[in-house]
Structures are given as C-alpha cells and as structure tokens.
Amino acid sequence: MKTRQLLLYLLVPIVFACERNNQGDKNSSSANGVPSDAYIEEEPDPIYSEHIRTTSYQSPEDEKADFVLPPGFEITLFASEPDITKPINMAFDEKGRLWVSQSSEYPIKAGPGKGTDRISILEDSDGDGKADKITDFANDLNIPIGIQPVKGGAIGFSIPNLYRFYDTDGDDIADKREVILGPFETKDTHGMVNNLFRGLDGWIHASHGFSNVSTVAAKDGDSIKMTSGNTFRFTLDGQHAEKTSDGRINPFGSDLDKWGYHYSADCHTLPIYQIIRNGNYTQWGKMEPNMGHAPTMMDYGLNSTALSGLVYYTDTQFPDEYQNSFYSGDVVTCRISRSTISFNGSTPKATRKADFLVSKDPWFRPVDIKIGPDGAMYIADFYNSIIGHYEVPLDHPERDRNSGRIWKITYKGQERTAINWSKANLEVLIEKMRDPVLQNRMMATDELVDRFKDSAIPELKKLIADEKTPNIQKVHALWAIFRLDAMDELALEKALSDHDVLVRVHAQRILGEQQSLNDHKLEWVKMGLVDESAHVKRVAAETLIRQQSPSMLSPIMKAIHATDKKDSHLLYALKYALYQHAQNPQIAKQMATQNWSNQEKEVIALVFSDTRSKTAAEFLVNYLKNNSLPKEKYLPYLTSIARDLPALRMKEIVALAKETGEGIPGFKKAMALNNGAKQQGIDLAPSLKSWNRQLSIDLLQDNSVNGGNKTDEGLERIKYATQLSGILKITQNIGELKKLVNDNQEKEELRIDAANALVEIAPKTEIIYLEKWLKNAESTISFRQKIALAIAKAGSEQSSSLLAKNIKDTPVELQETISEQLATSNSGKEKLLKLIRDGNATARILKARKVEERFHSGASEKQRLAFDELTKNLPPISEEKQALIIERTKAYSKDPAQLDVGKTLFQQNCGICHRIGDDGGMIGPQLDGVGNWGLNALATKVLDPNRNISENFRTYTIKLKSGQAKSGLFRREDGQVLVMADQSGKEFTIPKKDILEQVPSKMTLMPDHFGNVLNQSQFNGLMTYLLSLR
C-alpha cells in the first residue's frame, strides 16, 4: 500500500521504514531462494508505536548493545552527552572535522537573544575513532539546524535567519556574523531551513521545511517565496537566491549522484525524489495542474512516519553490495533503511532492500546521516523518549533535552584515514579530482577553487584539453573553471560534444548555469535535446525550463514526441519547459499561431490549459471547436477558457460549451465554467446564470419524476442542482428541495445541501420549516447538527432565537453545535448565558473548546465575567478528555470480527476528509500505515483532536468587509479567491477583495465530539480497523 501523508508531524521527514532482515552477500540467497538483502515485509515491533517510549534511558554503552548490523560492519560511539547535546544536522569540513548543530531548546524556540543552542566542531585528533577535541563554534543560537562549513567559518541557520559566521582569528570560535538570507517564518520549528550542502555549482543548496511560509530576499533584491516544502540555493555571500523546486511537505535530507542529480527526502508524500530543476511538486492543498505534478521515483510506500538524513553512498569502504545505495534514518521505527536505484532513460527507480541497521532501543532517533571523508557512516542520534512534534505537547516534561549521540559505522578491515584537504597542494587536489569517491572529488574541487583561485586555471585548462584525462576528472575540472569564471566558449563546446556521456551531461549543466544564452549557445542546448543519452536530453530540457527562446519551441516539441513514455522525468521536464515558454507573452503568441500537427496541438493545448493568458484561452477555444476530447481534458480546458477570457465574452463561451463536448452532461460543462469564473474572481455573467438556472430547474424536476439516479454522476448532478438553487436563489425549486430534505432514504449530504439552499433562497420562512428537522429525535444526531448549521447561516436574530429555544433537552453534541453558533454574535452570547442560568443547557457547554474560543472572541467584559462565574467550578476540559481516553483504552478489546464495523464507522465519520489508499477525501492527512501509532496515540487523536494541532491543519476565522465571518481550513489561493474547507470537508471560496482580517484559531477542523458520538463498542470497532492499517 502506498504511504502518503500521515498524522505525524515530526522533526524530520519520511524516507524509509522496514523490518530488519538477515543480510549477507549481494548474490547469496536464503533457503527459499530469496536474495538475502531483499526486503521482506513483517509486522513492526509494538515498541516503536509509542509516542512516549515507556522504556528507560540507556547509557551510550547499553544503547550500542541494542544495534543490529549486517555481518562485517561495526558501530562505535563518536561523541555523546555531556560533550554534545541534541544533534540535528552534520557536515564535514576540509580538515575532516565534523560540524554539528545541536539544540536543547527544540521544539520550543527561545525568545530573541535568549538562545543557548550551539554549533560545535568535533575532531578525532588521535585517530582512535572518537572525538577528543570539541569546540563550540557558536553557543548563543536558537534551534540551529542546517550547517555548512566554508572557508573562514560556516553558514548556518538559527531562528530566524541564515547566517554567515566568521572566524577572523582562526581559533575555531565565531567572532562575527551577518545575515545572508532571512528572516524565515518559524511558527513551526521542526523543519525550518535544513540540510545545507555545497553543490557542483558552488552555491549552497538547502531545504525549506514543514508548514512555514517564507518570503526572503537576497542582497540583489530578488525575493523567493516558499510555502512548506521547497528546495532552494543561494550564493555564499547571499548576493543571489533561487528556488530549485516548488512543493512537497517537509524535505529533510539531500544528496547528489555522479550525474549531478539532486535527491531529496520528503515527509508525508514519498521518501525519495530525484528533483527536476524548478519542478512543480505535489503539496497539501495544492491544485494539481492539468499536466500533472512532477513525477516520483518509487512505487512503494513505507510503513513509517518520519525519516531523515538521506545519503547516497558512493564511497568504497563498504562492500560492493552496499555501495551506490540510499540510506536513511527512521526516527520512529529506530533504524537505517536502504534502497538501490536503476534507470529507465533518465528516470530513476528505487528498489527497497533489507534494513541496514535496527536498534532495539526505541529512544534511538537517527535524525541525520552523513558519509565521512574516511568512508564511514556517521549518524546523529537525537536520543529521546519523544520525537513527535504534534502528537505530544511541545512542553511535555519527558522530552529529553540533554542526551545526544553520534555513531560511526565502518566495515571491519576497510577503515582509512581522512584526508586533510586544507594541507593538500594544487597537484594533490587536481589528482584527487579523479578519485573514485564523488565526495572526495567535490571536496577537492571546492578546496582548489577556494584556496588556489585563479592560479589553478592553467593546470585546469590543461586537464580539459587533454584527451587522456579521465572523464570524472574532466567533469570536476570543467566545474572548477566555470566557478572561477574562466570558461571559454571553445572549451565548453568541445566538452558538449565529448565522446563520454558523463562529460556531456555536466557540460550541459554548466551551459544551463549561464545567465543568458545567445543564439549560438541555444544551438548547443538544441544539440543536447537530440543526444543519444537520455541524461543529456534531460539536462538540456531543464535548462529550457529556466531559459526561454522562441527558437526552441520546435526542438522541444520534437523531443517530447521522441521520448519513451516510460521516461517520466524527461517527459515532464520537456513539457514543463514548454509550459515555461508559454509564460512569455510573445513566445505564447508564436506557440498559438505556429503550424503544428494535430499531435503537436494536443501538447500545446495541455500546456496552455495551465497557462493564465488570453492568448492561451483563445487557442483553447479554437481547439475545442475543432477537436473531440474526452471529458477528462475537455472540462479542465473549458475552465481555463472561462478563467482567462474577459467576462464580456461569457455569452460566447456558454455557446461554445453547448455546441461542443458531445456526450458530456450540460451541468458538468456549467460547473467547469463556474469554476473558471470563480478563479477569475468575477460574478457569474447573465448568460451563465441563465444556463445554470435552467439546468438546476430541469435536473431537480427530472429527479422528482424519475426517482433520482444513484450513480456517482447522478448524485453529482443533484448536488449541483441543489447548490445552484441556493446560489442563484431559484424560488421555483423550493418544492423540489423540500422533497429532498424530507426523503429519509436520500443521502444525508444531499438532504443538507437542499436545506442550505432553502436558507439561501428564503431564510425567514425556510428556517421555520427546517425547525421540525432540528427537533426530530428520530433523525441522526449528525443530521440534526447539520440542520442547526444550515439555520445558523441565515445570520439573523430570528435564526439565533430559533436555535436558542431548541437547545433544551437535546443531546449534548447537538447542544454544543448550537452553542458554537450562538457564541459567534453578541446577542447569541447573551442568549447562551441565559440558557445556562435558566437550566436549559449545561455550563460544561461553555468549556467546549470551539464554544469557548468563539465566545471570548469579541465578548464584553461583562460577558467574560459571567462566563467565568458559570464555569468556575468545572474541571479543565483536558482532564475530562484524558479520563475518557483512559476509560476507553482500558475497556478496549481487539476483535477481528469488528473490522468491517470499524471500516464503516470510518467511512461515515472520517472518510470525507481522510484518505486510505485511493479512497476518501484529501482535506486532512492521509492515514496509510496509521496503525503503527498504537492504541493510545490513535485514541488521543480521535477523542481529543485539539490537543496538539499541526499548523497545516489549523482553522482560520475570516472576517469579511460585509461584517460576516466564515471559518475553515486554508487550502490554497486560486486566482482571485481563497479556497477553504469547512467541517464537513467541503471546499468553499472567499474572494480576496472581500476579506478584512484572517484570525488563526486554536482549533483543528476535526470534530471534537467523538467521545459522545461513539459508544465503547463503536470505539472498539474503529480502533480495531485503524490499528489494522500498517
């Protein structure tokens, strides 16, 4: 089952999780013929499911005894408390020393100027395998994460900035610092800016972590905006900064391969991505483009919830079968996982292997992994009984703030001494640029550029001119010359046509780094698009994502049609390059008018459907007139037309929709046009209103006559008709809408849609009609709650009074829903207080979290005093919730026979927002593998959902200029509107121009009533089902 986003939001993101298996030689097999390094799925040990580990702290010596490794490997302690605290990120410098960022503040940031965290330099000066010299480079930091040593100091992140730290006197202590990029948003502290590394290009590359939205400007004034997961790069002086990808959730781990591909780990989507430069990746709340998000490189998920420290091992110390493998630390199931890679053209495919290391100590938290210059694997162990960021309160007393270890794994008999690059002369550095280990080649290149600068150029030019120079050495010589700004066109042209594919790939990468490409250089890119190697084509395509020219349209198109569909990464890069060309108005005009074949027009239409321009929309109009398309393409294209053509042309667009798209229902076409108008931020034009009105009337009448169609399309049709009835206030439909509400056999969702429509059409009269359903004790509580919400939408004194008079003698969860609505207005607050004083509602209602929050928002001093008086003797709600959790879990008994009952309960109560596999909604986190949490954690999340809230799932109250207020979960910006989701999981939009203020809530969107809704038997069924999802 594919693992997607889970309910755990941790310090680090996902990469791998699997059970430890016996391992041996690469080609050996077990008795059953299965290769001994193959992954075999097993049930994870329950000790890894506890959010707060119940085992005891162990000393480093005792923890070491709990590690299991393949034969021949050895693990030793490199450093531990009290010499270090909680390690987060690591990096090696040119002297072979290990730099470590550490935090005892995490996860609660210190106030400005009050940080006590540090970056330390660890050195094994006597060669015994353990750090014996530890220097605190900086010790006044605030949750430092990303760290990269550079000449004369380091670049590192500490809330809220990326700093350049200078050591001006050579004592290994920072005595000067400057902000080179920032401030970054840090409302969420468990990702922030992490895993810095220096690329082949000489820039510092970094990951931007979970939830935060940061807009930062480099010294040149250009700014970049990053929402949650992104990757970016910046120059060492902070002069320039660029995004290198957009999307994903919480990247935490990066590495490169020999081709120069950047691999990145991510939490909540998939464990490893090979990043397509500037690619558009999936992300919560992000609308998928018609051309799709950037592709993935793995077709399997992993049963864990937080992995980190991605490394690609290219060293030679480990045996052959363990080389060229990805390794990642799993901080939940306490292991280091391994995968190998193969290529289909330029597209990588990961294959899961048996775990490399497993710890039986559940406090082991491998948050980062780095391969040292000695070929050993170094592991940062954030040793702790708690790692969860949102599953456990941030200030929980059992969070360990002092213990931390760094472990070192070697293969016995293959240990070697690290090179001190700072003492290597130019001859040695040039020689090491042909070292078989990629990391050594990169370190030699950095040292040569940083220390020898222009004096190295003559020797470098000799290397690239010599036909006998090994390909790997020539590659790094080319990069060094480029970084020293000494690359002449003849040398680059020669490299671009080199007989060796690796040289051609990197020559194309260097070409792509040029700030602008003249016609001559564009011919070189064009040459790359027809290279025999898919890797060369891929790099050329990525260059054209960033640099556009009308002369490249036909070459890109030809390359698209020449590419094997199995090479998803190359195909996406080419199409995305065409998309980026379409963003240039002049090039877009040429795209629209060029003489394309039918096959080529199909590609142009796809790209234009994601392009917001009048030119693109005009092309799509003609395309729809002349081509018959399946609804999967036709409807999105129709939306694009309505989004991008002027509203004055809507009559023409409606006519187009009626005349084209044979076989596609009219209501679906109207929905597509409505969506486009909404994205443009305009009201429905008269012609579109008229069509929607007639469709709604006809569909409801047809439903009444024919008894309705229970297919998915039939339900969608009636849903459309009811919603449009309300939006357009179609009084003619009131009778049909009441029939829907009255039909007990109809789906609850449709009945409520009809009720909402009635209130929109005629609130004064229809809330009186709905009152009977509010009082109907035979209806489900869920239905009555939603009727209460529908009545509240009238927003009048009448509706407030109606709700108030119906609160007495109703179930507590319905009382809570009514109270939430009353608490939003001043008069409603007064009514609520009176109801409680008169004994018609319990005072406990006031302490329901959403009621309390809404009541205090805008309450007068007199109302606050009354609130306090009525609730002064009540125990805190958290104590009641905890008592309920203990009661329910104590009484829980696993019964496989209840699996189907639990699945049904999930679908009824949770499935509208949460997805498992391919079923369910995408409003909340996906729950594949959630059974690994264990009973206590799942019970807490279900029975007390507001205990620990992820910022990505915090709701907002939107105050409108009209005086109204709306509440919901932010999903995305879509043109001129904000897209939100309400408590039923439905998305709704708010025009940006109507917004006065956005106020964050302390509540999540998840209902807080399951303690009342589910009895013990139903709770047992739901838990049995959720715990089965591993």
Q: What's this entry about, in short?
A:
By secondary structure, this protein is of the alpha+beta class. It is built from 33 helices and 35 strands. A hairpin with a 2-residue loop joins strand 23 (335-344) and strand 24.
Index terms:
1030 residues, Membrane-bound dehydrogenase domain protein, SH3 type barrels, alpha+beta, Neuraminidase, disordered N terminus, metal ion binding, globular
Structure explained in plain terms:
This protein is α+β, with helices and mostly antiparallel strands and 1030 residues long. The protein is built from 33 helices and 35 strands. The strands form 9 sheets. Strands 1, 21, 22, 23, 24 and 25 form a 6-stranded antiparallel β-sheet that branches. It is globular, with a radius of gyration of 31 Å. It starts with 59 loop residues before the first helix and ends with a helix. Residues 1-31 have low confidence and may be disordered.
What is the CATH architecture term of the domain at 46-411?
6 Propeller
CATH fold field value of the domain at 46-411: Neuraminidase
User: Termini, distance in Å?
Assistant: 9 Å
How much helical structure, as a percent, in the residues?
Answer: 25-40%
Rounded mean pLDDT is 91
Largest sheet: 6 strands, antiparallel
Radius of gyration: 31 Å
Low-confidence runs: 1-31
GO molecular function: electron transfer activity; heme binding; metal ion binding
Protein name: Membrane-bound dehydrogenase domain protein
Organism: Cyclobacterium amurskyense
Keywords: Heme, Iron, Metal-binding
SSE blueprint and pairings:
Blueprint: H1 60-64, E1 67-68, E2 73-80, E3 87-92, E4 98-102, E5 117-123, E6 133-141, E7 147-150, E8 153-158, E9 161-166, E10 176-181, E11 193-198, E12 204-208, E13 213-217, E14 223-227, E15 230-234, E16 241-246, E17 254-256, E18 262-265, E19 272-275, E20 279-280, E21 307-313, E22 325-330, E23 335-344, E24 347-352, E25 357-359, E26 366-371, E27 377-381, E28 405-411, H2 426-432, H3 438-452, H4 457-465, H5 471-483, H6 489-496, H7 501-512, H8 519-529, H9 534-546, H10 553-562, H11 568-582, H12 585-593, H13 598-609, H14 614-626, H15 631-644, H16 650-659, H17 666-680, H18 686-706, H19 712-727, H20 734-742, H21 748-761, H22 763-775, H23 781-792, H24 797-805, H25 812-822, H26 826-837, H27 849-856, H28 861-871, H29 877-890, H30 899-909, E29 915-916, E30 919-920, H31 935-943, E31 954-960, E32 965-974, E33 977-981, E34 987-991, E35 995-1004, H32 1010-1013, H33 1016-1027
Parallel strand pairs: 16-20
Antiparallel strand pairs: 1-25, 2-28, 3-4, 4-5, 5-6, 7-8, 8-9, 9-10, 11-12, 12-15, 13-14, 15-16, 17-18, 18-19, 21-22, 22-23, 23-24, 23-25, 26-27, 27-28, 29-30, 31-32, 31-35, 32-33, 33-34
Helix pairs in contact: 2-3, 3-5, 4-5, 5-7, 6-7, 7-8, 7-9, 8-9, 9-11, 10-11, 11-13, 12-14, 13-14, 13-15, 14-15, 15-17, 16-17, 17-18, 18-19, 19-21, 20-21, 21-22, 21-23, 22-23, 22-24, 23-25, 24-26, 25-27, 26-28, 29-31, 30-33
